[in-house]
Design a protein that fits this description.
245 residues, alpha/beta, Rossmann fold, two-stranded antiparallel ribbon
Length: 245
């Protein structure tokens, strides 16, 4: 992890405290974090940054006690396997928190580019690219005017429907390290298509990140494709009407 990433993690911890302070007193925070109230006050007011170890503890506390609860409230799980993540496409504050969650998890791997699929995954991918300070590559479902050379990969959408993804060849290089980002992983077919595009380009997979997975599909992908890069899904839908983590 480079110095810039360390600073971003420390700032994320401060942003967490600043937000949580709207709901908890300094006494409450002191009890939960086991830190002196004056120290927390200096963090909240931006007078000083915590060291990396303390920042990670603050982030861990927040994500364990508040983050996933907040995320679950924004996602609708309906009948017949319907998952509505539309609120994630316009809730920029939550997108930012999700992105920094990804930054914290993948802090020890090299990431030079983010790869996602249009359309719902774009906002979170953009925020994640912002957090990492890297470009975001979007796999399109149609060819774009003016782009002549593509990596193309066909995949099964809803059988028997077959779709194609297109990524300009100029956007991926052999020395790139790619983090795949998606909002929802249901069958894993889209992820497989993106992995094939990465392999065609000669780039290296750094990891796979999703907000929600269905029926532990990430574990299935890891086993089936023998993926040795880190993989993270924040929430998992394992029944018709529940989300777990």
């Amino acid at each position: 992890m480079n110095k810039l990433s360390e600073v971003k993690i420390k700032i994320y911890a401060i942003e967490i405290l600043h937000e949580i302070k709207k709901h908890l007193t300094y006494k409450d925070l002191s009890t939960e974090l086991r830190l002196p109230a004056p120290v927390i006050s200096r963090y909240v007011k931006g007078h000083v940054l915590p060291n990396l170890d303390r920042a990670e503890k603050i982030i861990g506390w927040y994500e364990e006690n508040y983050f996933r609860k907040m995320l679950r409230q924004e996602i609708y799980v309906g009948d017949e396997g319907v998952i509505d993540v539309s609120s994630l496409t316009y809730n920029t504050i939550l997108q930012c928190v999700i992105a920094k969650h990804a930054l914290n998890f993948f802090k020890d791997v090299t990431v030079t580019k983010i790869l996602t699929v249009e359309t719902n995954g774009i906002p979170i991918a953009i925020q994640t690219g912002n957090a990492f300070g890297v470009d975001v590559i979007i796999a399109r479902k149609e060819r774009q005017v003016g782009v002549k050379r593509y990596y193309e990969e066909r995949y099964s959408f809803v059988p028997p429907v077959i779709r194609s993804l297109y990524v300009p060849k100029t956007s991926l290089k052999e020395n790139d390290h790619i983090l795949i980002v998606d909002d929802l992983v249901r069958s894993g077919n889209t992820i497989k298509a993106l992995l094939n595009i990465i392999n065609k380009s000669g780039a290296t997979l750094s990891g796979i990140f999703s907000v929600i997975e269905v029926n532990r599909v990430m574990d299935k992908l890891k086993s089936e494709l023998k993926i040795d890069a880190p993989m993270l899904s924040i929430l998992s839908k394992v029944t018709e009407a529940s989300l777990v983590f």
